[in-house]
Design brief:
The chain is an alpha/beta fold. It has ten helices and nine strands. The strands form two sheets. A seven-stranded parallel beta sheet has the order 3-2-1-4-5-8-9, with helices on both faces. Strands 6-7 form a two-stranded antiparallel sheet. Helix 2 packs parallel to helix 3, helix 4 runs parallel beside helix 7 and helix 6 runs parallel beside helix 8. It is globular. The protein starts with a helix and ends in a 7-residue tail after the last strand. 40% of the residues are buried.
Length: 277
């Protein structure tokens, strides 16, 4: 490939002047996403529950990237918070070009989250669903109005491998997360499976009006699991390890940018091969 060809290919990933709203932006993966988007020239809206923390991250991004960024205290499960937050972004920047629907929750009680299915509390189910799927719908609805009016935009809904396949129960004996015995709870699997339906529906409804909608499906990321879990997970993965927290960034930039201008309704799986067998 010529130097000109390489430069043209790289340029398609640039996001100069675009406005990217990232929910769950202060989490392990969210913090990587906002940094990468800003480095590619986007005005990043750092949206998470904690307004002060989001503002601090946005200020740091502005200083390091040289582009104006914004912090937003936003609860994706609250329709009023979503509508107010999106309106504030549009007032500040005039538009939203990219929505990264990344927010998810483990709830208030890890032990309750990991309760076996036959004992699962409906209140916990509803709390998780209110963020993991209701929140994605509310954000897509609010941001989608502005994208449809503008005739362009990219929405990336974040799912999980457990939205595609059932959890391998064999890896959980003796497994812990932050000191709590874990499994993959049914509410997580169901909420992440729903993301795929949301993506496909919006892609077909909004595609002719210039709005692309895709799913990013990460595999397991090292984030506080004990050694037992990490070893078993690695043994079940063709690449032989869990993901690092920066290994979803390339797929996010692809889906957010013109590099994927003819891609919609798709599921980009970054899982080290987990779903291959």
């Amino acid at each position: 490939m010529t130097e000109a060809g390489r430069a043209e290919g790289t340029q398609r990933f640039r996001l100069d002047g675009r406005v990217a709203l990232v929910t769950g932006a202060n989490g392990i993966l969210g913090s990587r996403y906002v940094q990468a988007l800003a480095e590619q020239g986007a005005h990043v809206v750092v949206a998470d529950l904690d307004q002060d923390a989001s503002a601090r991250v946005a200020d740091q991004l502005s200083r390091t990237s040289g582009v104006a960024c914004m912090g937003a205290g936003l609860d994706v499960s609250d329709p009023a918070s979503v509508e107010g937050g999106v309106d504030a972004v549009v007032r500040r920047f005039g538009r939203i070009d990219i929505l990264l629907n990344n927010a998810a929750t483990k709830g208030d009680d890890l032990k309750a989250l990991f309760t076996p299915t036959v004992e699962y509390d409906l209140a916990v189910w509803r709390q998780i669903m209110s963020v993991n799927i209701d929140g994605q719908f509310l954000m897509a609805r609010a941001v989608g109005r502005h994208m449809l009016e503008a005739g362009c935009g990219s929405i990336v809904n974040v799912s999980s491998i457990y939205g595609m396949v059932g959890p391998d129960q064999r890896i959980y004996e003796g497994a812990e997360y932050l000191g709590v015995a874990i499994n993959t709870p049914i509410v997580y699997s169901v909420s992440k499976a729903a993301t795929h339906g949301l993506t496909r529906h919006l892609a077909t409804e909004w595609g002719a009006r210039g709005v692309r909608v895709n799913t990013l499906t990460p595999g397991g990321v090292e984030s506080g699991q004990n050694d037992v879990f990490m070893r078993r997970y690695a043994a079940r993965t063709p690449l032989g390890r869990m993901a690092r927290d920066d290994e979803m960034v390339g797929a996010v930039l692809f889906l957010a940018s013109d590099a994927s201008s003819y891609v919609t309704g798709q599921n980009i799986v970054v899982d080290g091969g987990w779903t291959t067998w």
